[in-house]
Amino acid sequence: MKELSLHILDIAENSLAAGASLVEISLTEEAGALTVTVRDNGRGIPPDILPAVADPFTTTRTTRPVGLGLPFWKMAAEQTGGRFSIESAVGVGTCVTAVFVSGHIDTPPIGDMPGTLVTLVQGHPRVDFLYTHRAGGVDFTLDTRTLRDTLEDVPLDSPDVLAWLSDFLRENLRI
Ligand SMILES: Nc1ncnc2c1ncn2[C@@H]1O[C@H](COP(=O)(O)OP(=O)(O)OP(=O)(O)O)[C@@H](O)[C@H]1O
Ligand SMILES: [Mg+2]
Question: I need a surface site. Which of 4, 46, 54, 113 has the fewest CB within 10 A?
């Protein structure tokens, strides 16, 4: 079973490959469900391809885009009795939602979200990330746009910033 944080890294990499300048990741743990959304402002997925991207097993290999990130994410959520959806508009962006049933034996652990976020920022320092985590009525938010304003000319991938970011996330994401 793959940790959620590793799936989220895969899904966010799709957003980056689609040229997004903002990737919004949210994790919400409430009402017996863990909902993960990854929303981007990338190029979007054409409507003729959209139905096939999450279902490689039901389409023929010649007509589907090659890849397993989305199908595995869908399967992981549905296996717990949860659900998966993907909405996309060309030129606007894409939003991928996966809902896991909390406490189901097949619901993977969240894993290392600080590691995923630091990896994303380090690999894509010019892209902005908005991360929101809500659990037990407590909200945590990281917005690299705010961080960027504070840092002025210091790039987000400078070693000091990444080290700070890693510590900050590890201290605050214990919710
Ligand atoms: N956020 C997105 N924006 C635009 N296109 C996307 C997005 N997510 C997925 N796609 C399209 O759907 C295809 C399938 O995505 P998927 O993650 O399943 O596989 P992949 O990225 O091609 O390969 P991998 O197995 O390495 O993830 C992508 O190749 C891309 O064409
Ligand atoms: Mg992918």
Answer: 46
